[in-house]
Amino acid sequence: MDLKEAIYTRRAVRDYTAESVDEATIRLLIDAAVQAPSAVNQQPWAFCVVRDKKVLGSISRQAKAHMLSTTPAALLSHHFQEILNDPGFDIFYNAPVLILISSAVENAWAVENCALAAQNLMLTARSAGLGTCWIGFAEGWLRTPEGKALLGLPGSHVPVAPIIVGHPRGEPPAVPRKAPDISFI
Ligand SMILES: Cc1cc2nc3c(=O)[nH]c(=O)nc-3n(C[C@H](O)[C@H](O)[C@H](O)COP(=O)(O)O)c2cc1C
């Protein structure tokens, strides 16, 4: 699959088969991630690969509770309130793998660096026939001292991009794009 096809056919995948993703494939995705540009060539990213179902379940439960307790109700849509209160809702959609990309340094470009690595990872996964989805629901709790401790991350790390990876059960339909707001000066 060429780059254009990967860009145009990547989808946020929210339904996975039970098939695992082998370590060699995970390493291939991370190798693509670290090809991203980074500010001052710091390459500050660190990758934590979570495959333990119990740990994934624990993060999902605590992240939902964290979002509910830290987000003002007025800012949570009815749909979000419903799913976050649903004990059966797994924020990771039963994906077999979570790759958390964190910045090892807290600086002005921590988010940009890790987001660029995340996009490389997601497009490479697409071209390998795998599905991915960035799980923003997990971010808040993963940045807490408890979240970092669960994954053995140093306190100085900044978790940025929690990306689930797995074998998609089907092809999700494309989400239509708005017309870009472009101005030429
Ligand atoms: C920063 C960020 C956070 C996201 N968080 C979630 C999330 O918590 N749960 C989820 O199901 N999808 C999440 N998504 C996926 C978006 O909903 C998805 O990318 C968007 O609807 C467009 O669909 P597409 O990726 O299939 O083009 C997130 C995407 C980004 C970039």
Which short descriptors sum up this protein?
185 residues; alpha+beta; NADH Oxidase; 4-stranded antiparallel beta sheet; 7 helices; 38% helix; binds flavin mononucleotide
Compute the CA-based radius of gyration.
17 Å
How much helix, percentage-wise, in residues? 25-40%
Number of strands: 4
- Shape descriptor reads globular
Strand order of the largest sheet: 1-2-4-3
Question: CATH fold name of the domain at 3-52 and 92-166, please?
Answer: NADH Oxidase
* Relative strand content: 5-15%
Instruction: Extract low-pLDDT stretches.
Output: none
CATH architecture of the domain at 3-52 and 92-166: 3-Layer(aba) Sandwich
Output the structural class. Answer: alpha+beta
CATH class of the domain at 3-52 and 92-166: Alpha Beta
The sequence of SSEs as H and E is: HHEHHEHEHHE
Average pLDDT across residues? Answer: 97
CATH superfamily of the domain at 3-52 and 92-166: NADH Oxidase
Note the main sheet: 4 strands, antiparallel
Number of helical elements: 7
N-to-C span: 36 Å
Bound molecules: flavin mononucleotide
Describe the structure.
With 185 residues, the chain is of the alpha+beta class. The chain has a domain at 3-52 and 92-166: NADH Oxidase, CATH 3.40.109.10. It is 38% helix and 14% strand. It is built from seven helices and four strands, in the order ααβααβαβααβ. A four-stranded antiparallel sheet has the order 1-2-4-3. The termini are far apart. The site of flavin mononucleotide has 9 residues, from strand 3. Residues 11-12, 14, 133-137, 175 line the site of flavin mononucleotide (FMN).
